Amino acid sequence: MSLPPGFLDELRNRTSLSRVVGRKVTWDNRKSNQAKGDLWAPCPFHQEKTASFHVDDRKGYYYCFGCHAKGDAVSFLREAENMGFMEAIEVLAREAGMQMPARDPQAAERADRRSQLAEVMEAAVQHYRMQLRTGTGAGARDYLAKRKLSEADRDRFEIGFAPEGWRGLWDHLKAKGIEDELILAAGLAKPVAGGKAPYDTFRNRIMFPIRDARGRCIAFGGRAMDPADSAKYLNSPETELFDKGRSLYNHGPAREAAGKGEPLIVAEGYMDVIALVTAGLHAAVAPLGTAVTEDQLRLLWRIHHEPLVMLDGDAAGIRAAMRLIDLALPMLEAGYGLRFVILPEGMDPDDLIRARGAQAMRNLLEAAQPMVNLLWQRETEGKIFDSPERKAALDKTLRETLRKIADPSIRSHYGEEIKRLRWELFGTNRRAPQPGTRAARMAPGKGRPFVPDAPLPVTRTSLLATPGGAEVEEHLREAMILAICLTHPACVTRFESQLETVAMRDPGHDRLRHALLLASHDPAIAVDPGAFRNKIAAQAGDDLEKLMSLAHVRIAPPVRNFEDSDLATMCLAEELAKLEARRGAAAEVEEAMEDLTGLVDEGLTWRLSQAAAARHKAERSKLDDDSDMGEDRAALSAQLQNLIDRAVWEKKRH
């Protein structure tokens, strides 16, 4: 809403800055000169013992010589109470006796009616508080005492009591001259047919006033004293003042506390909020008896960019978290998210604080989980992924879930995190091969280096098994694969499935492979080769130094040309294909040799011929089908092969 010319100047002239600030500070009388409008106090924006916060009441300006906060009455309300601009203007205008400009006569009329309803609600607050202090409120006071609420706590939250009578509040408000229509419109009473007087909405309940961000009472929440009551908690009906899906309990004080840097906690009910606040966690709110709505989520994000949603650790609490995740996913924006605090099962915030202390609650808040963790938990917990079909079903579900995220950047980061979690599930928890099988001989064990089986006596004299360049060549191909991945981090993601399954015979190579795969899932470094290498060096420094000291690695084209990603992709695919084919041929030959018992039959001869064919195919590479790069690939393949052959010769010679 636009303000007419001169409105702000008139507002500032009528506003006493010292009165606005004085509600938040204690003036230093030794340093202040109130007659001249020169006042000093400890700063409300940072912790200090000395009075370095200066208010010049005549100029309407404040300045802190410690933290350098400065401004006028409007900026003070915005900073100290976390208000929006127009809200601060409305508060100051109301205190100065100025009428806010209305857009039209109807708007002014509606604003006036809401003010009347707010006055009726305030009268009800005072009535209920008075009833709590009388003899009829003894049972309610006992209950609150059992919940460890002192009289000061009751006053702080303005807790009251509605007695059992049918028309106690109605008669009280009528005696004050309040019209029937206003009482009914405020939701404090319900009409009765037949011309009888309406009856009170709340009876025999502990009453919790619900205030809006401006501090006006807009509704009540009532906790039943009778255990047999059909509704343990009852909220006011929706009125011109109260929209349950757009309101939060403890909104105003929580907003002010969050504005001073406290974490915003979203609890389940009134007593949870009160328990948190009395434990020193002042930025606590609660939805009003229902799941969080879109409007409430937007309200939460206006208060704090990352609210902490606190839920019971039982099945109902987890279901509530999942519903909120589905609601929040399409609404996510950069910088705005949710984290979840799961309480121990069977405990609410009050139970936890009383049993373990406020510090235990703070520890839980610090360990709050990001939303993506609960999303992953929902899709994987209690499920077994022991077949390709089940893994594919998980992938499909996750893809459909991530499509709900509208922001492409957030969707991408969620995808990277899900990919990392998926790799941890399937990459490090693969079923171990059976001892004595070929897979067991080829794969490195968890936490131990690969130790190849000793050759069988009958194969030691075989030409195919005599020591030569094959073992050295495989070692060098492993080194080339790792060096390309280290120089071009994007290749790790592209060839992830092959890198996960390829067996690295050298223990140092296997450690490097593991470090590469882990680092590729860190979005902060995965696109920065320098940061990527530093991350690897921190995890596998000696292995990395040993790898890059190899002469054939340092001069290889894909390692020297760190900007040519196409070259790196082509070379890595070729090296992986050759290594896979060579090892497949070697494994086939090994099994054939194990079957050799002195007689060579036709089946064995065929197997050996197939192994030789596989070896020949490996030399030609699996990438020769791409005719558009045939000549360049052949030349590059020959160059890489030459580098490896020379390195093999050097190792054999020495």
TrEMBL record:
Keywords assigned by UniProt, alphabetized: DNA replication, DNA-binding, DNA-directed RNA polymerase, Magnesium, Metal-binding, Nucleotidyltransferase, Primosome, Transcription, Transferase, Zinc, Zinc-finger
Cofactor notes: Binds 1 zinc ion per monomer.
Enzyme class, spelled out: transferase
Cofactors (names): Zn(2+)
Region (Disordered), start-end ranges: 432-454
Keyword field contains Transferase: yes
Record flagged with keyword Transcription: yes
Subunit structure: Monomer. Interacts with DnaB.
Species of the source: Albidovulum marisflavi
Cross-referenced PROSITE patterns: TOPRIM
Residue ranges of domain Toprim in the record: 262-346
InterPro entries from the UniProt entry: DNA_primase_core_N_sf, DNA_primase_DnaG, DNA_primase_Znf_CHC2, DnaG_bac, DNAG_N, DnaG_primase, TOPRIM_DnaG_bac, TOPRIM_dom
Gene3D superfamilies: 3.40.1360.10, DNA primase, catalytic core, N-terminal domain, Zinc finger, CHC2-type domain
EC annotation from Swiss-Prot or TrEMBL: 2.7.7.101
CHC2-type zinc finger segments: 43-67
PANTHER family, alphabetized: DNA PRIMASE
Cross-referenced NCBIfam families: dnaG
Protein purpose: RNA polymerase that catalyzes the synthesis of short RNA molecules used as primers for DNA polymerase during DNA replication.
Gene that this polypeptide is encoded by: dnaG
Record's protein name: DNA primase
UniProt comment concerning the protein's domains: Contains an N-terminal zinc-binding domain, a central core domain that contains the primase activity, and a C-terminal DnaB-binding domain.
